[in-house]
Amino acid sequence: MSYENQRDSEEEGDDDTGERGKGRGHGGSSVTSIFNSLIAGFLRTWSCLRGVPNMLNIPSQSFPAARSQQRVAASGQSGRNKVALKPGHSLMDWIRFSKSGKDLTGLRGRLIEVTKEELQRHNTRNDCWTCIRGMVYNVSPYMDYHPGGEEELMKAAGIDGTDLFDQVHRWVNYESMLKECLVGRMATTAMKAIVPSSPQSSLAPPLSMAAPTEKDSRPRYDWFQTDATVNLVVYAKRKIPSSGCTTVDLEAGVLRLEVVLGNMSYMIHLRLADDVEGNVAVHNALLVGKIQVSIRKQTKGKWSSLGLPLELHNTFLRKKDRALHYRDCVLVSKTEVNHNTHVFRLQLPRGTVMHVPVGKHVYLKALTQGTEVVRPYTPVDQSLVAAPLPSSQEADLYLMIKVYPDGVFTSHLSSLHVGDCLPVSGPEGTFSLRPLRDVTDLYLLAAGTGFTPMARLIQLALQDVDTIRKTKLLFLNRREEDILWRRELDELAARSDRFQVDYVLSDPTDSWTGRTGRVDESMLQDFLTRPDGSKCYVCVCGPAAFTELTVGLLKQQGFSEDELHAFQG
């Protein structure tokens, strides 16, 4: 199947339900496709495993876990290997079968603790157990429903398959997909989170606001107050990226602050001691690594403490181990981009301060037909040609989304009215601007809605990174009417000699005079140049087949992994 025939939006998943997702290629071997059937369309209900954690004494954590699905991989290769499924074995068929009441574990509803030795004994086609994040599942009944094929699923037979699963699709709602296959939990000891020492265990006001002097590199916090305000200060103990690393949510007296520092996440989570106003102000001292959050008290006076610590308060974890947190955003408008794509404008809650850095994405969540659906989307700016607002003034998210009439998730989005709410996660992804610091020539290769992460990269290159002398976009689509923001791209190219856009159509009309065909070696050789003394960088985003093919061709042309990034999705 050609990549043009794959759906290229950040959208649904299963082939047999008309929900074929685009997927972004991922670096690594074919092992990473073991759980690829769970990539999109994995639905879960709120009741999924709700009673299991208490029964098995498992620390509660919501999923999908905080792992970028549209992140940047080092090699950008794809591990997707789909096989043709038998009739009656689509995703929806599996959901119906799993809800039929049949015993899919062989344990008649019992949940057990599984030792490593016991897990290893269940390693055959008809008796296949695997472990994901401490939970053991009997995946034998799922074999014939797995789009990646039996062979790929068997690679996790009798072992802990968490790392294989996490390489590409940690965000997937596998608990709902396999909840009727749950055998129990692994009999292992959970790792403890890194908990930095609090300045005061009682959360009493600090004696001093001086910056910490200890060599411990973990962040810490203090707080102080006036009659009218309460102020929390985080010392990151390192420089803070100007692109934004802090997300604050204040709702019903509960303050949640997350600071992302590289691949680590520091969190403050408190129920404040007294009533406060709903607005939050965040001030960053980037060079010294200090973040101050200021909140106005409803009633003037002195507090005896800051508040009550809540779950995971004052913890410093790997970002990928931090569960996603959602806040309800309000749909402000839907603006048509072309015949099947709209920009959805979402307004953040009053008590939320959140900036999504360039190259990052968010997850949207919806309850449709009694099931929970989660999808990743990359924000764009309100306009490609207008100067973006400073991050401190950004209050809304703009998401460019292709709508499918038969799509489980986008059909729900399309049905929303202005004023409706939609849960939105914080920024996710591992894309870093650091490699762009010395780049002179930036090449962007996008297919379909793989254009969305490129939109803000273009603006960044033209407005904020003076070293980039030339930014070139190769934009592949099926038909001319599919090209997103074409007028704005053309206007931008006419304005700036530092930007160039080339369009490629795989199914053009007779009147089309531009490039045609699919991405191949000759097309890339013609598009990519390496001027003397230049430093080049290439970003790729599109359907999995497009990404995998393109990255392979780039490597054949001599581009190293340090010169490539492939957005995942």
How would you characterize the overall build of this protein?
It contains 11 helices and 29 strands. Helix 9 (486-495) links the parallel strand 25 and strand 26. The strands form 6 sheets. A 7-stranded mixed β-sheet has the order 1-29-28-24-25-26-27, sandwiched between helices. Strands 9, 10, 11, 14, 15 and 18 form a 6-stranded antiparallel β-sheet that branches. Helices cover 15% and strands 28% of the residues. The longest helix is centred in the C-terminal third of the chain and has 13 residues, at 544-556. The chain has 569 residues and is α+β, with helices and mostly antiparallel strands.
**Radius of gyration (Å):** 24 Å
Q: Total number of helical segments?
A: 11
Total count of strands:
29
Low-pLDDT runs: 1-80, 198-214
Q: Sheet bearing the most strands, described? A: 7 strands, mixed
What amount of the residues lies in strands? Answer: 25-35%
Strand order of the largest sheet: 1-29-28-24-25-26-27
Overview in brief:
The protein has 569 residues and is an alpha+beta fold. The chain has 11 helices and 29 strands.
List keywords for this structure.
29 strands, six-stranded antiparallel sheet, 569 residues, 11 helices
How does the SSE layout of this entry go?
Blueprint: H1 52-56, E1 72-73, H2 91-98, E2 112-114, H3 116-121, E3 123-124, E4 127-132, E5 135-138, H4 149-154, H5 162-169, H6 174-177, E6 182-186, E7 220-225, E8 229-235, E9 246-251, E10 254-261, E11 264-272, E12 281-285, E13 290-296, E14 307-309, E15 315-318, E16 326-336, E17 341-347, E18 352-354, E19 362-368, E20 371-377, E21 379-380, E22 396-402, H7 408-415, E23 421-425, E24 441-447, H8 452-463, E25 470-477, H9 486-495, E26 499-505, E27 515-516, H10 521-527, E28 536-541, H11 544-556, E29 564-567
